[in-house]
Structure prediction request, 102 residues.
Amino acid sequence: MDPRPTIGVTRPTVGDLLSFVAIALAIRLAGGRAVRLESSGWEQVRLDGLVLSGGSDVFPGRFQTRPKADYSYDHPREQMELALLERALAEDLPTLGICRGA
Prediction:
């Protein structure tokens, strides 16, 4: 069993690998173990902390504003992150939001 804390890092459905690698390196240097959280397969991962990383905009309809024309929103990621935030609150997990994640 790995004694390092497991920190989940959210990612977009497609792309942004370089950003994940940079965040994972920072987590490793701080003594943790980063795991990728993508829109499927994250539900059973045990977490000691959570990083909501940057990326495309959150769907503006959530805040009763109009969506951008011809913009590609990552709805599966948004649903995952909202569920993860509820889980983080319920389990009292330390959480860091970066850019979109904030």
